[in-house]
Amino acid sequence: MALVELLLRQARVRPHQAAIFHGTQPHATHVQWAARSAGLARRLTAEGLVPGDRVLLFMTNHPRYLEALWGAWWAGLVVVPVNAKLHPREVEWIIANSGATVGMVTADVAPSALAGLARQIDVASAEADTWFAPVPDPFAVPVVERCPDDVAWLFYTSGTTGRPKGVMLTHRNLMTMGLTYFVDVDSIAPTDVMVYAAPMSHGAGLYAIPHLMAGARHVVPASGGVEPPELFELGWALGPLSTFAAPTIVKRLVDHAEAQGLSPADAARAFKTIVYGGAPMYLADIQRAHRVMGSRFVQIYGQGETPMVGTALSRAQLADAAHPRYVQRMASVGVAQTPVQLRVTDAVGNDLPLGEVGEVVVKGDSVMAGYWRNPEATAAAVRDGWLFTGDVGCLDADGFLTLKDRSKDLIISGGSNIYPREVEEVLLTAPGVAEVAVVGQPDAEWGEVVVAFVVAQPGVALFTPELDAHCLAQMARFKRPKHYRLVDALPKNNYGKVLKTELRAWLALPGA
Ligand code: AMP
Questions:
Q1: Which of 303, 305, 359 most suits a substitution to test ligand 1, by most atoms within 8 Å of the C-beta?
Q2: 277: left (phi > 0), else alpha (psi -120 to 50), else beta?
Q3: Domains in the chain: boundaries
């Protein structure tokens, strides 16, 4: 079934229920949403786009994002979601590689990146009102048939190394992802409210699918981004929110709640469920999040190539403090989500015994159809249907996966493997430490040495001998950092992932 049918279904079942909000302002009911998406589909077709053509969405979060998505799908088109903060060079590459000719944009994105497009429409402009003009009867506008294996969402990987690759996600992939939310992540009632704080070009935007399946409400904050005070206020005004947040966003919400002296009950009125993932969540951070905001967290692990579907650590598992392996479970990413098989293998794909560290591989209906126009990269990533994720971890007897690191972040020092995450977890429990990133630095004697970049909590002065003593007390000597760099902030990409490539490049500079 094509994803556009989800909108038609809600336009029939709950036509006049408010569906999209901009801040606290109602933006569209389900039937108005369908009428505008159908209008856009007609217009895109009239402009000469044919099924399978690509439409670029290069926008900060905006209510029209949702209308544009479903409008493109109504016309049988493929959306290419692009993070609004990408470098113009990357966007130029994505436009050329995807062959997109039409782009929906917001006024704040870099115009220089868009030279390759034939048409660009600022979604907040008067011109856009004609593109999104509602049709009188959306049910009279034929939907372009799509097969489950047709591409719906062409997502370019974050590309911290090399050029971004286009991940082809099909209607089947996204339908699977949407249905899985109900089994492995959370229930959704039509009265629920999904808020898009993280960029809609990534996982947060994909969660529109399960929320539309359930006929829930969708809210785009007026700021278009992550402003903790605004999000709490929105939750208190519209009903507790569900959201997807990278660990850095969770941290900001928790910091705000703590600074304002909010209780877990106050947090419960603002947030129903916070799904976190996309980067490591450290044990110390999730424990603090629980203390401050109560039991409203669910973790997922996935990647663009199997979007939002890999493993899940449920609210119940995160709350099961009586379990003998509770702490290990909190530090894990949970168990395989229902539609996928998950294994940990050696380099050639053989299963490793439980507890041994190897590459995480995943198979199931959420796994991408391949990389766009890149059969070599596809063949390297997907072998016999198994997606080689590039993540390294180990499984326990109950099926819980503990991630160590991306394989490329592994540090080999004096011939021993050191997983940066292990060192990071320890350093984060040192008094006064706010954030940490550990990388390897090339070294003539050891091959690589461990370097820790450390950010102090506001108003705290950190001293490396104390950090070193803290590490020595808790980890093998050879794993502890050889050098510490006390920094004001860590470099992160727009999804909140720490850019370890930048840290390594910085260490390689003369005199660094
Ligand atoms: P992306 O394709 O941009 O979504 O990045 C996916 C990568 O983020 C994964 O391959 C992991 O390395 C990392 N990641 C995703 N979820 C988690 C998680 N829950 N814990 C740790 N790392 C994660």
A1: 303
A2: left
A3: 1-11+23-146, 411-508
Task: Specify the pTM.
Answer: 0.91
Give the mean pLDDT per block of 10 residues along the chain (512 residues): 97 98 98 98 98 97 98 98 88 96 94 92 97 98 96 84 86 98 98 97 96 98 95 98 94 96 98 95 94 98 97 97 96 98 94 96 98 96 96 96 87 86 93 96 90 96 96 89 96 86 90 76
- Please provide the CATH number assigned to the domain covering 411-508: 3.30.300.30
Is 406 a pocket residue for ligand 1 (Cβ < 6 Å)?
yes
How far apart CA 192 and CA 240 sit, in angstroms, is 7
> Ligand 1: distance of its center to the CA of 156 in Å?
15
What pLDDT, in 10s, does the model give residues 88-104?
888 999 999 999 999 99
| Alpha carbon distance 194, 100 (integer Å) | 29
- The protein residue with its alpha carbon nearest to ligand 1, atom 7, reads 303
Cα gap 162→238, rounded to integer Å: 43
Closest by CA to 248, choosing from 510, 502, 492, 500, is 492
Closest CA relative to residue 231, chosen from 23, 497, 85, 20? 23
The reply to whether ligand 1 has any atom less than 6 angstroms from the CB of 301 is yes
DSSP string, 76-131: T-EEEEEETTS-HHHHHHHHHHHT--EEEE-TTS-GGGGTT-SEEEETTSHHHHHH
- pLDDT tens-digit map of 417-429: 898 998 999 999 9
Nearest CA to ligand 1 atom 1: 303
Backbone phi, then psi, for 131, in 5-degree steps?
Answer: -70, -35
CATH number of 1-11+23-146: 3.40.50.980
